[in-house]
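Posting for a labmate who doesn't have an account.
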Amino acid sequence: MTDDPDGVLVRRGVVIPARELHWRFSRSSGPGGQGVNTTDSRVELSFDVANSPSLPDDVRDRALRNLRLVDGVLTITAGDSRSQLRNRESARERLAQALREATKAPPPTRRPTKPTKGSQRRRLDQKTRRGSVKRLRGRGGWDTPE
């Protein structure tokens, strides 16, 4: 898969090496019992998208355009689990997913098409028929007793 087991696979051919990931740990709120105040289980993963040499130029441009970044840095926070290891894995997966979504190629542009002559003729014929039905419903359509 990759030469760097701690790197993040964004897509085929695009891997962020571990040396470009910056980790910060802090005490997490939430579940943890007595250990919640003693263990640094909350994880902040930062990746400098703007200055990363591992991202190709087109991928970097799309990421910068589509992600909400602070000074070109993407920051992912994970603190759902009591385990720092699980929070690290979660942050790594969420970073890869965010980059995948932001860097996917735009959909192909729509080629405008014209309706066929037959479909135009059928549409106009149907409008004429419908109009005549409605016209018969109006005044003088039927002989009504007075």
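Reply:
Got it, the structure tokens are right above this. The beta strands are 8-11, 14-16, 21-26, 42-48, 73-78.
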